[in-house]
Structures are given as C-alpha cells and as structure tokens.
Amino acid sequence: MGALRNIMNPFCTFLFLCMLLHVASSMPKTSAKTHYHGFIIQATPVKRLCKTHNTITVNGMYPGPTLEVNNGDTLVVKVVNRARYNVTIHWHGVRQLRTGWADGPEFVTQCPIRPGHSYTYRFTIQGQEGTLWWHAHSSWLRATVYGALIIRPRPGESYPFPKPKHETPLLLGEWWDANPIDVVRQATRTGAAPNVSNAYTINGQPGDLYNCSKKDTIVVTVKTGQTNLLRVINSALNQQLFFKIANHKLTVVGADASYVKPFTTSVLMLGPGQTTDVLITANQPPTKYYIAARAYASAQGAPFDNTTTTAILEYETAPCLAKCTSTKPVMPSLPAFNDTATATAFTKSLRSPRKVEVPKEIDENIFITVGLGLNNCPRGARRRNCQGPNGTRFTASMNNVSFVLPSNFSLLQAHQQHIPGIFTTDFPANPPRKFDYTGNVSRSLWQPARGTKVYRLKYGARVQIVLQGTSIFTAENHPIHLHGYDFYIVAEGFGNFNPKRDTAKFNLVNPPQRNTASVPVGGWTVIRFVADNPGIWLMHCHLDVHITWGLAMAFLVENGVGELQTLEPPPADLPLC
Ligand SMILES: *[C@@H]1O[C@H](CO)[C@@H](O)[C@H](O)[C@H]1NC(C)=O
Ligand SMILES: *[C@@H]1O[C@H](CO)[C@@H](O)[C@H](O)[C@H]1NC(C)=O
Ligand SMILES: *[C@@H]1O[C@H](CO)[C@@H](O)[C@H](O)[C@H]1NC(C)=O
Ligand SMILES: *[C@@H]1O[C@H](CO)[C@@H](O)[C@H](O)[C@H]1NC(C)=O
Ligand SMILES: *[C@@H]1O[C@H](CO)[C@@H](O)[C@H](O)[C@H]1NC(C)=O
Ligand SMILES: *[C@@H]1O[C@H](CO)[C@@H](O)[C@H](O)[C@H]1NC(C)=O
Ligand SMILES: *[C@@H]1O[C@H](CO)[C@@H](O)[C@H](O)[C@H]1NC(C)=O
Ligand SMILES: *[C@@H]1O[C@H](CO)[C@@H](O)[C@H](O)[C@H]1NC(C)=O
Ligand SMILES: *[C@@H]1O[C@H](CO)[C@@H](O)[C@H](O)[C@H]1NC(C)=O
Ligand SMILES: [Cu+2]
Asked: Hey, what's the signal peptide range on this chain (predicted)?
C-alpha cells in the first residue's frame, strides 16, 4: 500500500510540503521529539462533482496534511488565518493534559482566530497510540478543514500486532456542491434542517460512482500475501458511515487511538469523530476491489445523502490496473441504510485488549438525555424563519438545556480568570423531568430551555454518565464526543436505561476505551472515566447539524493539588474575543 496514488491530485506535493514544514529536534534525555508545523487557513479552488468551489483548506490541501508523531512527542502548530471566516483547530481525541488552551473548540477553550490573525497550538501526546485527527471547530469549517493525526508507539516500542508492511490513512468525508458555511447559515436562518451533502469522499475524492470523479479515484495498491494497516477516520460532518472492502476481511486492532482486542469483521460502522484501525491481508485473487462507504442513517424518515463513495484496492499484479477499464472493481454489498443490527453488532464487538482499570466506586452518577426538539415560533416571527416541521424551528439539547456558546470570553478564560456572567455551574445531573424517553413523548416536553451551563467536577472524581437518547421528534443514533478524555464504554442498549436491570450487564473488566460513543437509536450508552484533567471540556454530538442546534454541554474540572494537577497558564498569544 506504499503507493497511495491519486492520479490528478499530487499527494506527494503535500507530503513534500509536510516535510518542509516539519522540523524534528531531539531532546537530549528522552527520545521524544517536538514537531513544528505551519497551517495556513486559506481559500483554494477545489473541483469536485464537475464544479469548482473556493474551498477553505489548510495549506491549499484537501484533506489537509497528515501529522505523524510518536507517543510522547510534542506538537507545535502555528495556525495563520488567511480566510474570511473565524477559525479554530481541534486535535480530536488528544487528551491535552493541563493544556486545555490548545484544545480548540471556539468560545469554549479559546476565542476564534480572526481573519488575519494567528495562534500557536502546543501540546504533548501522552499515553495515546493509534489514529486521531484534527479539524476546524468553528461553524461548519471542518467540512473541508481536517486531516489525520497518526501516533505511533515510542521509538523502540512496537505495535501489539505483527508490524504491517504499509499503513494508509483513509479519511471519510462529506462534500457539498455549495459553500458549507452557506448551508449552515441558511439552516440557522430558516430553522429547517440543513441541506444534505452531495457526496461522501475517501481522502477527499468521491470516487468513480459520481460524475466527473472517475479519473481522481483514490487507488490503494497491495501486494499478494502482505498485511497492511488501514487507519479509517470518519471525518464526515453529519453522517454515520458503514465501511467495507469487497471480498476482504478486516481485523480491527484499534479505535480512537486505543488498542482493542483484535476481532475480524467484514464491515465497520463509524460515527463522525470515530476512528478504526484495521489490518487487511491481500489474500484474494489479484484484481481490483472497491473500498466503499455509505450512510448508516438511523433516523426514520429524515432525509440523508444516500450516495456511495469508493476507492480502489488494487493488487499490484492485477491484469487490468486502475486506468484499464475492461475490468470493473468488485463491489461489496453494503448494509441497508437502516441496518441498526449491523451497526450495533460492530460497536458491541469492541473490547480492550486486556483487563483495564475501570472506576468501580462512582463519585458522580450523571444521567443525561440527548436528543432533538422543536421550538415553537414566537408570536410575530416571520414564516420564512420558521421552516421546521409545522412552522417550528429545529433545536437539540442535553438534559433539556440547549447549549449556547458565550461570545465575549471563552468558557476556559472565564473560569480561569473568575469572570462572572459568562456561564453558570448548574447543568443538571439528571433530566429535569422523567418521562418515557424512547416512547411517544408529549408535545409539551419538546421545547428545551437555552443556557450556557457547565457541570462542575472535583479533580479526580470518578464519573459515570448514562447517555440516554430520546425520541423527541425522532430517535436517532448520536455520536457523543467528550473533549480532554478517553472513557470506558461499559454498556449500551435499547429503550430506557433501567439501573436495576442494566447495571448487572456492565463490562467492568475489558470495556473499550474511546473518545466518541455511538449512542444507539432509541437507546442508551454508559461511560465511565476519572476526571484527572483540569479545565473546561465540551461534550457534544459530533453530528455538526446537532451541535449547531445545541446538543452540547461542558464539564468544568477543578484543579487538584500541586502543579501537575493544575491547568497551565494561558499562552501569551491566546486569541481574545
Ligand atoms: C439547499 O437546497 C435547496 C434545494 O435544492 C437550494 O435551493 C438551496 O440553494 C440550497 N442551499 C444552499 C446554501 O446551497
Ligand atoms: C450525472 O450526469 C448525468 C448526465 O450528465 C446527469 O443526468 C446526472 O443527473 C448527474 N448526476 C449527478 C448526481 O449529478
Ligand atoms: C437515493 O434517494 C433518491 C431520491 O431521494 C432515490 O431516487 C434513489 O433511488 C436513492 N438511492 C438509493 C441507492 O437508495
Ligand atoms: C429498513 O428499511 C426498509 C426499506 O428500505 C424497510 O422495509 C425496513 O422495515 C426498515 N427496517 C427498519 C428496522 O426500520
Ligand atoms: C405536523 O402537523 C401534522 C398535521 O397536523 C401532524 O400530523 C404531524 O404530526 C405534525 N408534525 C410534527 C412534527 O409536529
Ligand atoms: C458579554 O456580552 C453580553 C452580551 O453579548 C453582555 O450582556 C455581558 O455583560 C458581557 N459580559 C462581560 C463580562 O463583559
Ligand atoms: C402520541 O400521543 C399523543 C397524545 O399525547 C396521541 O395523540 C398520539 O396519537 C400518540 N401517537 C402514537 C404514535 O401513539
Ligand atoms: C424543558 O424545559 C422547558 C422550559 O422550561 C419545558 O417547557 C419543557 O417541558 C421541558 N422539557 C423536558 C423534556 O424537560
Ligand atoms: C469572530 O469572532 C469574534 C470574536 O473573537 C466575534 O466577535 C465575531 O462575531 C466572530 N465572527 C463571526 C462571523 O462569527
Ligand atoms: Cu446527534
């Protein structure tokens, strides 16, 4: 898989650029390195689906540069904003121990980098190995501003599986034949659901099932008998995806930069934000096979992009190579769009490789409902601003609070500098009302309250959160992402969580560790973690359409004792509002 070929788009140009920008300096006592990168946020003409858009990119590349580091290394990334939008960059899944200022969500840990300004993110990778990624965390810029972050074991250490011959990141993305910022602005104005995308992509290319895309289809070459590592990342904005490679089994070895107990499957399901590392052995007749992804669309009746993106897995010795058209690649049969059984079977197969230290005693037992809502339009509102179902506006909430970002200070700044009036610490530990969350919910409960509420945690608190999906308006699968932490997923199920019945089923031995949990459609997920990273940490649905509507909250984790349990001071160049 050494040659990741993309016939028109010169991938190597960008590798070359990465190398230019990448200065690695060894520190004397350890083998840890510091990697310096420059990210220029800029509009660049990008042609997809027969049309050119002035796309916001990093360094003119779509997707952006792949960052490759070893566990223990430090990253220093100077972001210069030459675009016309505010921007921030989030290092998705990086723990950011004591370095919350580098986490990135706008108005949460920093104010946006305004056009013409810059900010340098500095952070160290501590105890994480596998695949993460980075993306813009401002409006919907992450539709095109994203890239892979690969973390290899420390020098001299090895993977807990046979060393793959080659490694290939596969970023699954989503493309609008429009400016994604216009799409979200239109939805915010009208109150309706935003337009769905026009294509999914693999490493930025839709693949040959779409118009004007054939010659640019990504080709991954393999050699018979070799085993390679694929780092699959769902960087789509709004859609969970099934992923499959025709005729090949995939051995899952990692998810969200934590190793998992290896298991074999023919299909993956990834929610936006999630990553899955798989080994694939080239043991099939030498020809061309499609690598394909399409929607896992769990919400009944809701519109979604039902197209299929493809790349080609090509055996080096195939008689008819990429440019030869006499043989078509073998197409895998993908699960039905609503195949919740397959999605659930996949997420339930994940385990940690061995017994892990799951918190057993719990200090903070939190129950959070997650779901959509509809706001009635205020009297006198214009009809064109109320284009949700039956003249409403879409909204979303956690525990009936629809999250509102502050605008004059970031939450972290307000916390650290004791600035009052920016947020309150009364995010409820339980839903304000109990109801049949997954049943026929009374219309009187559909309209959440708005607020900028955080939940305060003592340093070191052992936390359990039940994430309970609701069927308000519609039930659907929500990929819930927690910043600053990895958590154990100790159980998931359908219907209403029932502590009497369900606690007995918790896996406290080898549950998977992740940063994004797929809360089942009309169901629940239970996560546990220790609050050992002081700061303000956003928890939100990673479907950007839902975070836009307020499906978010934040934890305020207090400092502990001494410097090593205390948030670092803010960097001097931290952007202000
Ligand atoms: C959304 O889709 C509608 C219907 O196809 C179209 O008229 C509108 O221009 C689209 N909005 C954006 C921002 O592209
Ligand atoms: C692709 O092109 C064909 C022929 O020009 C056209 O009929 C079709 O609508 C296009 N499909 C898409 C998805 O744009
Ligand atoms: C996708 O949706 C369109 C219109 O909504 C429909 O015509 C088409 O058959 C669907 N395609 C698939 C693969 O389901
Ligand atoms: C999935 O969709 C098919 C039609 O596309 C329908 O027949 C089936 O009942 C649906 N299954 C579920 C579980 O909703
Ligand atoms: C919209 O109104 C119709 C007709 O009154 C009703 O059947 C439907 O359930 C309503 N939908 C929502 C989401 O309120
Ligand atoms: C922040 O801005 C809001 C209005 O946007 C204002 O009401 C509030 O007083 C401001 N807070 C501070 C601390 O300046
Ligand atoms: C849901 O409940 C409302 C009354 O609360 C009732 O009018 C409606 O028919 C119910 N819908 C279903 C699908 O049971
Ligand atoms: C949420 O709060 C609003 C406003 O207080 C209330 O009308 C609604 O019933 C509440 N819904 C739920 C699910 O608690
Ligand atoms: C950009 O960020 C500044 C605060 O830093 C804010 O005042 C301004 O409204 C933002 N612009 C947009 C378009 O969101
Ligand atoms: Cu969601």
From this structure: 1-26
| Protein residues whose CB sits closer than 6 Å to any atom of ligand 1 | 178, 182-183, 186, 195
For residues 568, 569, 573, 576, the Cα torsion angle rounded to the nearest 10 degrees is 110
- Cα of 204 from ligand 3 centre, angstroms: 23
Strands 308-315 and 219-222: parallel
**Model confidence, pTM:** 0.94
Q: How many angstroms separate the CA atoms of 537 and 461, rounded?
A: 15
What is the distance between the alpha carbons of residues 500 and 488, in angstroms, rounded to a whole number?
20
| pLDDT tens-place string over residues 218-253 | 999 999 999 999 999 999 999 999 999 999 999 999
- Please provide the distance, in angstroms rounded to a whole number, between the alpha carbons at the two ends of the chain: 45
Q: Which residue has the tokens 């549950």?
A: 511
- For residue range 312-348, list pLDDT tens digits in order: 999 999 888 877 888 899 999 999 999 999 999 999 9
Buried b (16+ CB within 10 A) or exposed e, 214-230: eebbbbbbbeeebbbbb
Q: Pick from 138, 210, 175: which is nearest to 63 by CA?
A: 175
Residue 407 pLDDT more than 60? yes
Residue the block writes with tokens 């989503």: 174
CA–CA separation, 507 and 119 (whole Å): 42
Q: Whose CA is nearest to atom 8 of ligand 7?
A: 440
> Over the chain, what is the mean pLDDT?
94
| Number of other residues whose CB lies within 10 A of the CB of residue 566 | 14
> How many other C-beta atoms can be found within 10 angstroms of the C-beta atom of residue 158?
10
At 561, give phi and psi (nearest 5°).
-105, 130
Q: What are the CA-CA distances from residue 388 to residues 194, 197, 400 (Å)? A: 10, 19, 19
Extended strands (E) in 235-305? 241-245, 250-255, 258-265, 267-270, 275-281, 288-295
Q: Report which bound ligand comes closest to the CA of 51.
A: 2
**Sequential DSSP letters for 516-546:** EEEEPTTEEEEEEEE--S-EEEEEEESSHHH
**Region of 503 on the Ramachandran plot (φ > 0 left; ψ -120 to 50 alpha; else beta):** alpha
Any idea how long the chain is? 577
Identify which of 374, 347, 153 has the alpha carbon closest to the alpha carbon of residue 260: 347
CA dist list (Å): 559 to 52, 297, 456, 533, 563: 49, 41, 11, 8, 9
pLDDT at position 184 is: 98
Q: Is the CB of 432 under 6 A from ligand 8?
A: yes
Region 281-303 average pLDDT: 97
Index of the ligand 4 atom closest to the CA of residue 338: 1
Token output for 495: 């219907």
**pLDDT for 19:** 35
Domains of the chain, first to last: 24-156 (2.60.40.420), 161-347 (2.60.40.420), 364-565 (2.60.40.420)
